[in-house]
Input
Amino acid sequence: MSLEQPKNKLHGITLERIVTELFEHYGWDELGLQVNIRCFQEDPSVSSSLKFLRRTPWAREKVESLYLFMLRERARRERTNG
Output
């Protein structure tokens, strides 16, 4: 059985990396607007966000979806500006 997941775009990307890149791209204020969860809105930090997201599957799915959207937008901008 192969451990590779060629169709899973998040394979090999840690949740910490996802949250960190989203924070660097959007900032906490915008991230809290994009994903309406308290860990992004009240006293946010990567650490507290990771604790919440690891035990809350629906929130993690929203964050992962936003991350994939951010990557698509970044790639689109690079194609048009590159």
